[in-house]
Design a protein that fits this description.
Layout lengths: L18 H18 L6 E5 L3 H9 L1 H4 L11 H7 L12 E9 L2 E10 L1 H7 L3 E9 L3 H16 L5 E4 L11 E4 L16 H7 L3 E11 L5 H4 L1 H11 L1 E5 L5 H16 L10 H12 L7 E6 L2 E10 L2 H4 L13 H10 L4 E9 L8 H15 L5 E8 L3 H9 L3 E12 L2
């Protein structure tokens, strides 16, 4: 999910390595050493079709990230549901397949490849996407996985590939290329540093960088903006209201229209189908807070939207991907307890309809979100993500409110000719 072009006017480097860089360097070296001892062994790539193979596909990250303290294990049941063509609404209009790579019987890599005809019709392209990529630090493993994904797309007549993108940019997208020293926020990716070389080694080139920003407000900028916000609201007749959970079905239609219409013409975006949006909305309702899911209106008509979510990753991190243990809901009990301790959020969606931009609408959405998060929920920080690297207007605005860019995610692409 993304932060759109908005209406507001308006890497560091060092000669020494940080502890995080040393950690990732050591991790990459261990992986390379493991790879060199088995260079002569054959890598087999198979499509995931059985229950056992699905388990192997889902479980692989626990091996890849076992030494990474910033990785947040997802709930395995959620990952299974995400790739289940009987349960995920993407498969009502698109298609996808999952593959795993084995060496000496051990699973050492995985990839998902997808074909979204809606995207190609909307953008006039002929491409497919790869996502959910994981691999040991072995160029042969990565190459075999990407070759298999490319063959799958060629068989469907596609001539380009782009990724990492899980189905579409409405889902987790981009390869983390800097900012490895902090954990990922809800619905955002996390990767080892060596993945970039693996993808570039297959001939993938940069398509677009996506930025993630971190906001803490140590100088109480929020308070200083209150008068400015009041003037904007009075000048343009803008009001901001929280989501109406008691009228949720009607609200889904409002949020869906605003989300799709705001982003329709932006790079990489595809309109979410009705089934996809309803599926996502009901999932987010379980963790959402109405005061962080906002609609801006002018004369009673919805013109802007923002969706911020408690960073449930803070609550998930200690569970190691499980809600039960031997049938006992130990993980669920921990999750419910941990939810009360969340102290950060992620602003995942921010958009204003064409014709109502440059009127301070998004400024009001940002301010009200941060104000409620800091002063009511007592959050200590928030991620605003993601924004396009060339969206200068919104990036400058985010910098003005005191946020700092702290992660970069890259989407790669190449021709399949």
């Amino acid at each position: 999910m993304t932060i759109a072009t908005e209406d507001i006017s308006g890497e560091w480097s060092a000669a020494v390595l940080t502890d995080d860089q040393i950690h990732h360097s050591n991790f990459a070296c261990r992986s390379r050493n493991d790879s060199r001892t088995q260079l002569g062994e054959r890598v087999a790539v198979d499509e995931v079709t059985t229950r056992k193979e699905r388990r192997e596909f889902v479980d692989l990250p626990w091996s890849i990230y076992r030494d990474d303290p910033n990785w947040v294990p997802p709930l395995k049941r959620e990952v299974h549901a995400f790739i289940d063509r009987r349960r995920h609404p993407f498969y009502l209009h698109g298609d996808a397949a999952q593959f795993i790579a084995r060496r000496s019987g051990e699973v050492v890599g995985r990839i998902m490849v997808s074909d979204d005809p809606y995207y190609n019709a909307q953008h006039g392209t002929n491409l497919g996407c790869f996502g959910m990529f994981e691999s040991i630090d072995d160029t042969n493993v990565a190459r075999r996985l990407l070759d298999r994904a490319a063959d799958w797309l060629r068989a469907r007549g596609r001539t380009e590939v782009m990724g990492p993108i899980d189905y579409s940019t409405n889902y987790p997208s981009g390869l983390l290329i800097d900012g490895f020293d902090t954990p990922p926020r809800i619905m955002m990716n996390h990767h080892p540093a060596y993945y970039q070389a693996l993808l570039e080694g297959w001939g993938l080139d940069k398509e677009k960088d996506l930025y993630a920003w971190w906001f803490e407000d140590p100088h109480d900028i929020i308070s200083a903006w209150h008068k400015r916000a009041a003037r904007i609201a009075a000048r343009y007749g803008v009001t901001v209201r929280p989501a109406r959970f008691d009228q949720f079905d009607q609200e889904i239609d409002v949020f869906k229209r605003l989300y799709n219409d705001t982003w329709e013409d932006h790079w990489g975006m595809v309109r979410m189908s009705d089934a996809e949006f309803e599926h996502l909305a009901h999932s987010l309702k379980q963790i959402g807070i109405p005061e962080l899911m906002l609609v801006a209106e002018v004369n009673g008509d919805p013109v802007g939207v923002s969706i911020s979510l408690p960073d449930i990753n803070e609550a998930l991190a200690p569970l190691n991907g499980k809600l039960t243990n031997c049938g006992i809901p130990i993980g669920l009990i921990k999750l419910l307890r941990n939810l009360r301790k969340i102290r950060s959020a992620r602003m995942a969606v921010l958009g204003v309809l064409e014709g109502f931009r440059r009127r301070g609408v998004s400024e009001l959405l940002i301010l009200q979100t941060l104000d409620h998060g800091k002063n009511v929920l007592k959050y200590t920080g928030a991620e605003l993500s993601w924004t396009l690297e060339d969206n200068d207007m919104v990036n400058r605005t985010i910098e003005r409110v005191g946020a700092e860019r702290y992660k970069t995610y890259r989407v790669f692409g190449r021709s399949l000719d």
